[in-house]
Amino acid sequence: IEDMSPTDLKVYGIYEGKITKLQFERGITVEGEIITGKRNLQGKIILISFKNCIVKMDDKILFHPSWGIYDMAIGASIVSAFSGVADANSYGLHFEPPKEKTHKIKFSSKEKELHKLYNEVRQMRVKNEMKLEKLKIIYDKLVFDYPTDWLLLLEIYEIIQTGINDKFADKVLNHLNKLSEQKSISHLIQDGIQMIKGASNN
C-alpha cells in the first residue's frame, strides 16, 4: 500500500469516505470508513485512519468500532526491532539498559510550522469546513517558505474543488503543474490531480 499512487488507491477502493475492507495474508482483516491518510515527504503512505472500524484476526476482535478512531500504520518492512521477549519481568529476566539511545528526531522551527499548516488543512477536511481565506494564506506561505512541498498543495486543491473558487483553484493547479516538472515527483503530483478531478466529476 505504501507505494500506491492515488490512482491505484482509487482502483482498490482505498480513499477518504469509502467503506473498505482490507484482508491480509495472516488472516487479519480491517474494515471501516477511511477518514484520512498521510504520506511522508517521499510520497509514501505511512498512515491510514478509519472510523467505525473493526479489526479481526480470524474470529478474534483486535479493535472494536466503539474504541474510537483506528490509525493503521503502513509499511512493507520493519527497519528496526528489539531482540528479546516483550515483557522480561514476567520471565524473571534482567537486562542492562542499551548503551545506544533512541535517536529522537529534532524538528526545526520551520518544520514545525509546516506541520502546523498540514494540521490546519486536515482539520478543515475532517470537519468538512472550507475556510477559503485561510487556505489562501496557507497557500502563500507554502509558495514562499516551502517551495518544494507539493503534498499539502494537493490537499488544498482537493478541498477547493467546489466550482465556486475557480480562480484560486486554477492558481493552485498551475503551481502544482510547475512543481511536477521535476521528474522525481511528477507522477505523484499528476496522479493526485487526476484522482481529485475524477472524484469531483462523480
Descriptive account of the structure:
- The chain has 202 residues and is α+β, with helices and mostly antiparallel strands.
- The chain is 40% helix and 19% strand.
- It contains 6 helices and 5 strands, in the order H-E-E-E-E-E-H-H-H-H-H.
- It has helices at residues 6-11, 109-127, 132-145, 151-159, 166-179, 183-201, and strands spanning 19-23, 28-39, 45-57, 60-63, 70-73.
- Strands 1, 2, 3, 4 and 5 form a 5-stranded antiparallel beta sheet that branches.
- Strand 1 and strand 2 form a beta hairpin.
- It is globular and about 65 Å long.
- The model has no long low-confidence stretch (mean pLDDT 83).
Features:
single chain, 202 residues, alpha+beta, 5-stranded antiparallel sheet
Helix-strand pattern: HEEEEEHHHHH
The major beta sheet can be summarized as: 5 strands, antiparallel
Q: How big is the Rg?
A: 20 Å
Q: Tell me the structural class.
A: alpha+beta
Q: Concise description?
A:
The protein is of the alpha+beta class. It has helices at residues 6-11, 109-127, 132-145, 151-159, 166-179, 183-201, and strands spanning 19-23, 28-39, 45-57, 60-63, 70-73. The two termini are 24 Å apart.
